[in-house]
Each structure stands twice: as structure tokens, then as C-alpha cells.
Structure to design on (195 residues):
């Protein structure tokens, strides 16, 4: 059966986290602004309209909880990090919200770290991966926008990230535009969320 996604909660401030379903098994989607987190949610949902996307970075400003049916776990779309064109104060606020979420989500089974397959590893991505390692939270690396690269470049990028993350498995390849990697991503999410 084709899984479906339902938006069940939207959180704007650390205080509101008290009302969020933090104990339920969940996987968060993290990554720099514009990397394709919300587009990935839409591709998983088989709908272009569930999560708002934009060619302008900084679109998602809240934490959005989606329930996966029928599996029952949650996917959590986080605001992107590293967006330069907002005020320092607002960037700090997002950072605090993301960090508060990562610290408090007792049901968090893994964080899918989305990485732009066209770019060399970026400082903020390496920071995120290190943070997760220290916190003991499994990271599931996903290279996005795979439709924009040749297979040769994708393989090189996969090897680069595998070495950086010191994991035996290379990052998954994914394209929201073509659906490449969709089945493999579902498999990895289900396994990480439900064991
Ligand atoms: P923030 O909410 O700002 O953090 O961004 P986001 O990570 O949610 O990115 P979003 O899904 O809004 O996508 C950003 C832009 O990248 C949009 O213009 C998308 O159409 C485009 N995009 C996302 N995924 C893909 C993909 O797989 N292939 C291509 N070619 N474009 C993509
Ligand atoms: Mg988004």
C-alpha cells in the first residue's frame, strides 16, 4: 500500500514544543535552507501541496510534524539552517528552536541529514553530523537533487560523505524531481523508525 502523510502539528517556538508529540517514534529532516527537505516530504506524500516549498531559501519557518500512515511514526520537517539573508537575531531563533527540538524529542530515532549532491561538504553540514554523533543520535545521510548530477559525480560525492561520516554505508541518493531513490528512502526511514 502507498503510505500517506498527514500534517498533525506545527510549532513556531521552543515553548510550543511542550504541545508537540515528542515521545512518538519519529525521524527529523534536517539540512541547509533550500536543500530540498519540504520537497522530499511532498515526494514521500505523493503530493506537491502538503509542505510549502520555494526556490527562495528560508521557506519553512516552523517545525512540521507529519504522521506516516499506516506505519504510525512521524516525519518532522525542520526549518533549514544557514540561511544568510535573514537577520542574525532571527537565525539565532531558528537555531534555538531546532536545538531545543533535538534535545527534547525523546522519540527521535534518527535524523535524516539532507545534503546537496552538487556541493562539496559544507561546514554547517559537518557541524550537524558531529552534533548528532555526540548526542548519540543516528544520522541518515541523503544526497538531494540527484537529478542535477551525473552518476560519476554522485558516486564521488557518496564516497566523500561516507569517509567523512566514518560509516560503512554511503548516503542515499534522492531526487524529488524524478522520484529516484524513493523506495530506498522509505525502506531506510521505516527501518530507522521502527527497527
Ligand atoms: P527551507 O524550507 O528554506 O529550509 O528549504 P527546503 O530544504 O525545504 O527546500 P525546498 O523543498 O523548499 O526546495 C528548495 C528548492 O529546490 C525548490 O525550488 C525545489 O523545487 C528545488 N528542489 C528540491 N528538491 C529538488 C530535486 O530533487 N531536484 C531539483 N531539480 N530541484 C529540487
Ligand atoms: Mg522547507
Amino acid at each position: 500500500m502507498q503510505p500517506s502523510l498527514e500534517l498533525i502539528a506545527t510549532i513556531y517556538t521552543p515553548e510550543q514544543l511542550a504541545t508537540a508529540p515528542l515521545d512518538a517514534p519519529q525521524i527529523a529532516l534536517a539540512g541547509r535552507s533550500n536543500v530540498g527537505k519540504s520537497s522530499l516530504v511532498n515526494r514521500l506524500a505523493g503530493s506537491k501541496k502538503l509542505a510549502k516549498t520555494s526556490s527562495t531559501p528560508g521557506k519553512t519557518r516552523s517545525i512540521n510534524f507529519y504522521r506516516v500512515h499506516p506505519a504510525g511514526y512521524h516525519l518532522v520537517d525542520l526549518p533549514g539552517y544557514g540561511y544568510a539573508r535573514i537577520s542574525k537575531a532571527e537565525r539565532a531563533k531558528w537555531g534555538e528552536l531546532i536545538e531545543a527540538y533535538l534535545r527534547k524529542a525523546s522519540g527521535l530515532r534518527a535524523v535524516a541529514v539532507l545534503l546537496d549532491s552538487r556541493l562539496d561538504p559544507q561546514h554547517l553540514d559537518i557541524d550537524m553530523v558531529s552534533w548528532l554523533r555526540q548526542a548519540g543520535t543516528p544520522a541518515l545521510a541523503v544526497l538531494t537533487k540527484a537529478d542535477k548530477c551525473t552518476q560519476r559525480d554522485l558516486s564521488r560525492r557518496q564516497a566523500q560523505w561516507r569517509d567523512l561520516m566514518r560509516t560503512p554505508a554511503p548516503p542515499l541518493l534522492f531526487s524529488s524531481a524524478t522520484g529516484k531513490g524513493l523506495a530506498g528512502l522509505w525502506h531506510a526511514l521505516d527501518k530507522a523508525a521502527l527497527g
In short: The mean pLDDT is 93. Strands lie at 4-11, 26-31, 63-69, 74-77, 108-116, 139-144, 172-173. Helices lie at 37-45, 88-104, 123-135, 151-165, 182-194. The longest strand covers residues 108-116.
